[in-house]
Amino acid sequence: MDKKWHEIDLFAKNAIREAGRKIIDSFDEVLNIQTKSNVNDLVTNMDKQIEKFFVEEISKAYPDHRVLGEEGYGDRVKDMDGTVWIIDPIDGTMNFVHQQRNFAVSIGVYHEGIGMLGYIYDVVSDELYHAVKGNGAYVNDEKLSPLEDVPLEEAIFSLNATWLVPNRKVDHERFIPIVHKVRGTRSYGSAAIELAYIAAGRLDGYLTLRLSPWDFAGGKVLIEEVGGIVTDLNGDELSMVDNSPVFAGNRAVHEKVLNEYLKK
Ligand code: IPD
Ligand code: CA
Ligand code: CA
Ligand code: CA
């Protein structure tokens, strides 16, 4: 592994574990909960505090790197020039508030648009998924196996019920045949955890209609390291600076669902 990326990887893992400790410690304190775009779009003092922590640590250690963070404490990133950290301090804030589990810290580090480092830290389970491009993906110290091709009939597919009822975004009926075809469906409420589960082979497909780059930047690096695919619903490459529908899966499930159910 290139020495430079190895050093950044160690720095990132230390910072992420420290962020995890701060989050666990916050369970003893009263959360300040606010809403953003609507009454169900929650943000807490911890989402903000953790993002600020990363922005400060990264700007001290790597002043020429830029940060794109959900809560807006980083830079105004409009392109992927240079090295960009794409950070979701707490992915699954609704779970964090209501369940104190099923949320994750998610980080992708991209260099000239290429995903170099990917991290998803399921704090409560103490599972740190991490990958350096070209060096495989791991959960804690355990190397993740290359993804196996799973027939659709045996696939566990993650899809939020929101997309199966009439909604403003899309013709919901087009997803119903997928639900009939697969072995089972799940929804965990944290895009990062769903992507980490794809990388770990616990899920075979994940489809959602609206994610932001910080939701998928880390997961994309992890999944690609084990031979999986992450695209939009047409099979096209995702932009790292725009919101997008996202479809991730092992190679066989991705190809079959794309060709037989998604492509018009
Ligand atoms: C949300 C979660 C959720 C997904 C939403 C995201 P947040 O992220 O990943 O699973 O369905 O689209 O916005 O706001 O909790 O970081
Ligand atoms: Ca949010
Ligand atoms: Ca998120
Ligand atoms: Ca978030």
Number of domains: 2
The H/E string reads: HEEHEEHEEEEEEHEHEHEEH
The ligands found in this model are: D-MYO-inositol-1-phosphate, calcium ion
Radius of gyration: 18 Å
Overall 3D shape: globular
CATH architecture level-2 label of the largest domain:
2-Layer Sandwich
Helix content: 25-40%
Given helix and strand content, the structural type is alpha+beta
The CATH C-level class name of the largest domain: Alpha Beta
Euclidean distance between termini CA atoms: 42 Å
The neighbouring-strand order within the major sheet is 3-4-5-6-7-8-9
Percent of residues in β-strands: 25-35%
Q: The biggest beta sheet, please?
A: 7 strands, mixed
Number of strands: 14
The CATH superfamily label of the largest domain reads Fructose-1,6-Bisphosphatase, subunit A, domain 1
CATH fold-type name of the largest domain: Fructose-1,6-Bisphosphatase, Chain A, domain 1
- The averaged pLDDT comes out at 97
Structure description:
- The chain is α+β, with helices and mostly antiparallel strands and 264 residues long.
- It has two domains: 3-143, Fructose-1,6-Bisphosphatase, Chain A, domain 1, CATH 3.30.540.10; 152-262, D-Maltodextrin-Binding Protein, domain 2 (3-Layer(aba) Sandwich), CATH 3.40.190.80.
- It contains seven helices and 14 strands.
- It has helices at residues 3-26, 45-61, 93-99, 176-181, 191-199, 213-225, 251-262; strands at 33-35, 42-44, 66-69, 83-91, 104-111, 114-122, 127-132, 137-139, 142-143, 156-159, 184-186, 205-211, 229-231, 244-249.
- The strands form three sheets. A seven-stranded mixed beta sheet has the order 3-4-5-6-7-8-9, with helices on both faces. The chain has a five-stranded mixed beta sheet with strand order 11-10-12-14-13. A two-stranded antiparallel ribbon has the order 1-2.
- Helix 1 runs antiparallel to helix 2 (45-61) and helix 5 (191-199) packs parallel to helix 6 (213-225).
- The protein starts with a helix and ends with a helix.
- 43% of the residues are buried.
- The structure holds D-MYO-inositol-1-phosphate (IPD) and calcium ion (3 copies).
- The site of one calcium ion (CA) has 5 residues, from strand 4 and helix 6.
